[in-house]
Design brief:
Helices cover 27% and strands 34% of the residues. By secondary structure, it is α+β, with helices and mostly antiparallel strands.
Length: 595
Amino acid sequence: MKNIRNFCIIAHIDHGKSTLADRLLQQTGTVADRDMQNQLLDNMDLERERGITIKSHAIQMHYMYEGEDYTLNLIDTPGHVDFSYEVSRSIAACEGALLIVDASQGIEAQTISNLYLALEHDLEIIPVLNKIDLPGAMPEEVSDQIIELIGCDVEDIIHASGKEGLGIDDILKAIVKKVPAPKGDPNAPLQAMIFDSVFNSFRGIEVIFRIFNGKIAKGDKIKFVNTGKTYDADEIGVLKLLQEPQKEMSAGNVGYLISGIKVAKEVKVGDTITHAANPTKETIKGFEDVKPMVFAGIYPVETSEYEELRASMEKLQLNDASLVWEPETSAALGFGFRCGFLGMLHMEIVQERLEREFDMTVITTVPSVQFRAIKSDGSVQLINAPSEMPDPTKISYIEEPYIRAQIITKADFIGPVISLCIDKRGEIKNQVYLTSNRVELTFELPLAEIVFDFFDKLKTISKGYASLDYELIEPKTSKMVKLDIMLNGEPVDALSAVVHRDKAYEWGKRLCEKLRELLPRQMFEIAIQASIGSKIIARESVRAMRKNVLAKCYGGDISRKRKLLEKQKKGKKRMRQVGNVEIPQDAFMAVLKLD
């Protein structure tokens, strides 16, 4: 056990985590040169297309140091704030972390938040200054930032370049020397934590775990503590580039387990695995439950595909433990699911994965956050969707979730960043200069305002320099109202939203204008109205397509033309009463992209 090292790689987006992991795999000979490709651990098409890491990936390497063979278990983690749950799970399975900082960008918001996550779990931090070969690199300046952040010495910071392969040996030596070997008793009852799982359509669910105490052997009868189910360990092994089956694994190691589990619900990330015959007394303190930030409805386009969508969601949830969902129905869209996501990027990725991996075409409704309505009788009702909003006369006040956002930016962009946050109903709480030209701004903002396009706007006004990290704080009382969209007097519940009263008029007006462009013209006029309660605040009309009934009137009296027009008008009126409006998929999507 003294020769095992478990470590993960943490950093901000694009600071070179996956590239550095590639070099470590090459240096230790884990991957043959012919199998090598860039971002080797990012094995999902989406990750390769977008160039981001979405899942954390575990892989085992062997490294010879001073004549001894060391086993290094590496977990590569995502950098985006929407996938921070993946990071927190990886950290729970490790004893050390490589903190990577881009020498040309310096320390950014995610660097700090992931570092705090690691420090909470008492991990040994090894600072690495990456991309030192870039012309814009500022090694001295960024080294000072790192020293100020974690209080290490200049000699502790390893200079490296993932692209050129510089400093890779130093990193491997530092891991062996500094990261503590796992503690644990191989002779105690088995105690292992599930930190990830994958659905394999041939072999059932593959569970990825880290053993804290005890041993597990092939063919053992094991038990999952939370669900109370027992299974046979048909195959256990370590994760190299491909899975390598083993006869036995003991404390401190990371591996996979296949036991023919077919039902997705039976595997809970964070659960403890133990022996059925000799169970452990205490469960492992896993990681806190995920708190979804954004809620949206996901509905199948064809109502008949509802059960299929449910099965797909269960399989996806195995691979992405931060996805939370429950069934719901909607008058316009039929049966579907109310899903909780960690952010807009997460929502986009989930939707794409459903389409690619499971061939499901889905409609997503307007994202919203969870409000709390305190009624006149003192009871509290949670509002996840606009349709759940109680009657305004019965509500005494509504609380909405607030976040504390840390924004790190260059000093030149302070003005625009502050005005963006104030425009989003935020208030500034703190302003700290990290260096002469980098500022950390702290804001308290309503979560509902940053759900849509806040991050994109922040990146635009700061030319890509600002970075954002946020956490939930206590909710605050706000004037929220339900904005309904009506087509020909019929409310469309999939388009309604809960908005702040001050912004309701502007939101309703923009939404009506957008819908007018997107709804196809019918044989009758369509009235698009935005209303709060019974008060109409905005209206647009889609004109009817009409036949020229006057074509046959040549000259003659005006009353003949009037008679034909009146007759047409009556027909259109009757059509409008019986005609119903089909809403195209683009209209639902347009609401998400209101600028």
